[in-house]
Amino acid sequence: VANEKSNLLLSLLQAEDRDYLLARMQPVQLPVGTVIRESGERPAFAHFMTSGLTSIVTVMADGTGTEVGLIGSEGLVEAFDIIGSTLPPTRAFVQVEGSALRIRFSDLEKFMTMSPMFLQRLLQTVQCQAYILGQLTACNGLHEIEERLARWLLMVQDRLKSERFYLTQEFLADMLGARRTSVTLAAGSLQHSGIIQYRRGHIQILDRGGLQDAACECYPIVRDLLTNQYQ
Ligand SMILES: [Zn+2]
Asked: E strands, the chain, where?
């Protein structure tokens, strides 16, 4: 059952701010593949994730995409949409089945003008996400597929708080902006080293320390940015 304690951002608000929002929220289930917000559209609702994982991806004309954001039960899917009225060139969709507390976007915008503390908390979230996005853009351009895969699996584990999850190969390749074959090779190499077990999309992290050693320098940077989001 979704509740305010399972979203970190909501849990850090002042009690009266949280109560105001909760009174206007509904729990929603999010099956895999659910499009939470389409590219080119203003969101009708804001989603505070309470379980599962949502990816923000760029959408190219040929249907390919690359991940530019990853939101679990720590955050708000529409964080960038709150800054202004520019239409997003990205799609938000559910990558690992989960749930969220949702509120009408207009109610959220109204409350941002009512509570400076809430606004400050949201802006901190947006700032950290923007810095994470910059780091990951550089990472995808400069670092090898195996260390990017290790970095990404650690990010997923941090957000899901689970060592086991299911992801299709297409998802994996899209998320890393890589070819399926190179992702399969990289996953095979991590598996050969005894760091992960990977079978038809079912991933189990066996050795988190080994995964951290295999990841590029970007992992500790984005992990610390995520932590900063909530300080
Ligand atoms: Zn990197």
From this structure: 25-30, 35-37, 45-58, 67-71, 90-104, 164-166, 196-199, 202-205
Q: Is the per-residue pLDDT at 146 higher than 80?
A: yes
Note whether 70 and 76 are within 8 A (CB): no
List all residues 6 or more positions away from 198 whose beta carbon is below 8 Å from its beta carbon. 187, 188, 190, 191, 204
How many Å lie between the centroid of ligand 1 and the Cα of residue 133? 12
Kindly give the distance from the C-alpha atom of residue 146 to the centroid of ligand 1, in angstroms, as a whole number: 10
Q: Could you tell me the distance, in angstroms and rounded to a whole number, from the CA of residue 152 to the centre of ligand 1?
A: 9
Q: What's the gap in Å between 170 CA and the centre of ligand 1?
A: 21
3-state secondary structure of 62: coil
List, for residues 83-116, the tens digit of each pLDDT value.
Answer: 999 999 999 999 999 999 999 999 999 999 999 9
Gap from CA of 7 to ligand 1 centroid (Å): 27
- Give me ligand 1 centre to Cα 218, in Å: 4
Which residues, including other chains, have CB under 8 Å from residue 86's CB and lie 6 or more apart? none
| Over residues 177-206, mean pLDDT | 90
Tell me the Cα Rg of the chain. 17
Q: Which residues pair with 32 in a beta bridge?
A: none
